[in-house]
Amino acid sequence: MYLSRDEEAVYRGDRGETLRRMMEILVALGDIYGAERLVQVKSVQIAGVSYKNIGDAGLEWISDLEGEVVVPSILNPAGMDLYCWRDMGISEQFASKQQEIIEAYRRLGVTVDCTCTPYQIYDDLAQRDDHLAWSESSAVSYANSVIGARSNREGGPSALAAALIGKTALYGYHLDINRQPSHIIEVKAELASSDYGALGFLVGREVGDGVPLFRLRSTPSRDELKALGAAMAASGSVALYYVDGVTPGPPVPPGSAADHDECERIGIEKEEIEAVYGESRGADVDIVALGCPHCSREELERIADLLAGQRVQKEMWVCTARKIRDSCPELVERIESSGARIFCDTCMVVSPATEGFGRMMVNSGKALVYLPGLGGVDAAFGSLEECIDVALGRRR
C-alpha cells in the first residue's frame, strides 16, 4: 500500500508511539483488503464503548493511548445512562468502570455523545460522497444508504485509529465498484411504519453482506429508512442499500447502463412480513423497550401522543441521544408522566440492565436479532402501537 512521506514518518514512529500503533492498524487493514492508499475522512464514529462489551482489556488499551483526535469523532452507546444509571439497576462497580472508559475517550478529544444515530444530532458529520470511518452497524448503513456517504463498518480499534490519524484505508464501500446492487427486492405490498423493521429482518437474512436495491409501493420516511437499514445490518451484515426513487442511487460505471440485469431478484409478500409479528404476538413480556436505533424527536412525539394521559402497567424504556432529550423537555415530561423512563447514552442491546428481564417487547428488527444473544433476553416484535398497548396493559 502506498504511503506518503508524512504517513511513512508516522508509521516509523517519528510522531510518537500511539500514532505509530494507529498507523500500523490502518496499514494492516489496507494490506488485508488490497487498498492502494489511505484516504482522508470527514468524521469518525467509534464502537467499543460499553464496559459490558470491551471489559478491562479494552479499558486498558484505550487508557494507554496518548494524543488527540484530528477529525470530529463521536461515541457509540455506552452500557448505561451516564447520569441515571442507578435507575437502570446498574451496579456501582460497573458504573465506575464505564465512567473510566468515557473519561479515557474524553482525554483523546472524542465527543462523548454516546449514540448510534450521530446524524440525528449533528448535520455536519457526513454529507454525500464524504469518506467516513463509522463503526456502529445501523449508523454505517444510514450513512452509506440515506446520506450517500462512504464508510466501511469499522471495528472499535480501527475507528479510533482513523480518528487519531484522520484517515482510513481506501477499500470496500469507499470505492464505486463495491457500491453496485447485488439484489433487487420487490416488495409486493403497501408498508406500515413498523413493517420496515420487519422487512429488514427478512431481507438481511436473505442477502447476507449483499447490497439490496428495493422497489417499494410506499415512500419511507427517514426514521423508516433508519429502521430498515438497522434490521438488515443485524440479521445479515448489510452496510449499504438503495430504495428506488428515495435514496441516492448507485454509481453508474463508465460505459455501462444502470439496468442491474445481473442482480438476483427476490420478491417479498405481505404474508412474510406479517409472519415476523406472528412469531411474537400473544406472549407475555416483562418490559417494553423502544429506541433501537435511538429515537428521533419525531418518534418521541409519536410515543408521547400514544401515551397521553395514561399510565403504563409494565416497565417501559425509551432510548434516545442526550441532545435529543435535552432539546425537547416538554416531550420528556409527557412521556415520563406515564411512568415510562427515557434513558440516554445507552440502549437495551448494550446495557447489562437488560439481563434482569425474561422477555422484552420491541419495535426494532435490530433488537429482535441482538437481544437473545447479546442481552440474554427473549425478544418479541410488534409495531410501536402494539408495544405501547402492551405497556399500558391493553393486551398480552
Describe this structure in words.
The protein is α/β, with parallel strands linked by helices and 396 residues long. The chain has three domains: 5-176, Aconitase, domain 3 (2-Layer Sandwich), CATH 3.30.499.10; 180-277, no CATH class; 280-391, Aconitase, domain 3 (2-Layer Sandwich), CATH 3.30.499.10. It contains 14 helices and 15 strands. The protein has helices spanning 5-12, 17-33, 51-63, 92-107, 137-147, 156-165, 195-207, 222-235, 270-278, 297-307, 322-327, 329-336, 365-375, 384-391; strands spanning 38-40, 44-46, 73-75, 111-114, 133-134, 167-169, 183-187, 212-215, 242-243, 264-268, 287-295, 315-320, 341-344, 359-362, 378-381. Strands 13-12-11-14-15 form a five-stranded parallel beta sheet, with helices on both faces. It has a four-stranded parallel beta sheet with strand order 4-3-2-5. A four-stranded parallel beta sheet has the order 9-8-7-10. Helix 7 packs across helix 9 (270-278). It starts with a helix and ends in a 5-residue tail after the last helix.
